[in-house]
Amino acid sequence: MYYREYRPQTLQDIDNEKRKALMTQLLSHPQHIPHAFLFSGSKGTGKTSTARIIAKVLNCERNMFADKKSKQVVDACGTCDTCKAISAGSFLDVHELDGASNRGVDDVRALREEVKFAPVQGRYKLYIIDEAHMLTKEAFNALLKTLEEPPRHVVFILATTEEEKIPDTIMSRCIPITFNRATHEELLVSLERIAKGEGLRLSKEAFLLIAKAARGSFRDGAKLLEMAVQGTDNSIEAITAMLETQGKKGSTELLTALLAHDEKKAITWLSAFEKRGGSAKLLMESLFDELHELLLAKNELETASVVSKAVLDKTSKADIAGLTKKLINCYAQTKYSPIEILPLMIAVSSFCEDKKSRS
């Protein structure tokens, strides 16, 4: 998979310049390494990749941590046996845990006993807890003691997509780092790097389409690029068709019909979308992004690219809020519907009827 093969391996590989500078600064003083980090942000923004990079930096055989003469070399080399083992997931002192399946107090108590032992292969033991918000209250309480008085050779990295579920007592003992969604430019750099590595030849327009459809996720961008080149046809038309079935493209046409309160056109579009095998859930996620962009544009904070200026001018903030509320309710109901597209069709019909009744 492209995302795994081309994920950042060193600090230098991190596409976000501010994050790269921050991580370099935090790791520049071997005597004052933070004992706990809290990485929060959307999926696919580089939390786990960055955690592994920290593990490499702290255990690399060729940087300032290994050789005091290399005072200026903070980054991992990426080529020594230790760096390769961490990349392969075989380094004994880097432990990746899933908060969803290791969420109980007994799991954390076992971890507390384990951290007392010295590293086996490297200088530091790292515990990367993904989806940390899934830990139980009792598990967090058990972890708290270790975070308060951690062994010098241990670093914890908690990663979460729902920071608000992390207790304040835990957050106060971690260095918080927010992973914002990737910018359009960062996604293009990432996609072009993958394409160069794979020897792919795609048009600039194709990269732009995929970058926009990725909605700020490096992982989604790499996945969509891989899907786009699976067949022999890499034309704009073929890529657009692929994105439509993923709910990543074409929603602008639906949104335009909705904002015009054209129920027939909207339902017709949804019916055709269903026949193509499109995902209602992914389609709604795309609509949420577009509505968010529209609301920013209505407040003159961003330029809208999803609809024409004429449509934007005719759209009220009340329409944006009303449609968003209906889609939020619909999104929650979709997983319980035997016909996935039906709740969305009902929400669309209801939104258009509400407008007619007010007119």
Automatic annotation (TrEMBL):
It is an enzyme of class 2 (transferase). It catalyses: DNA(n) + a 2'-deoxyribonucleoside 5'-triphosphate = DNA(n+1) + diphosphate. Its EC number is 2.7.7.7. GO terms for molecular function: ATP binding; DNA-directed DNA polymerase activity. Keywords: ATP-binding, DNA replication, DNA-directed DNA polymerase, Nucleotide-binding, Nucleotidyltransferase, Transferase. SMART domains: AAA (SM00382). Coiled coil: none annotated. The keyword Transferase applies. InterPro entries: AAA+_ATPase, DNA_pol_III_sug/sutau_N, DNA_Rep/Repair_Clamp_Loader, P-loop_NTPase. The keyword Secreted does not apply. Pfam families: DNA_pol3_delta2 (PF13177). GO terms for cellular component: DNA polymerase III complex. Gene3D superfamilies: 1.10.8.60, P-loop containing nucleotide triphosphate hydrolases. GO terms for biological process: DNA-templated DNA replication. Residues 33-181 form the AAA+ ATPase domain. DNA polymerase III contains a core (composed of alpha, epsilon and theta chains) that associates with a tau subunit. This core dimerizes to form the POLIII' complex. PolIII' associates with the gamma complex (composed of gamma, delta, delta', psi and chi chains) and with the beta chain to form the complete DNA polymerase III complex. DNA polymerase III is a complex, multichain enzyme responsible for most of the replicative synthesis in bacteria. This DNA polymerase also exhibits 3' to 5' exonuclease activity. Belongs to the DnaX/STICHEL family. This is DNA polymerase III subunit gamma/tau.
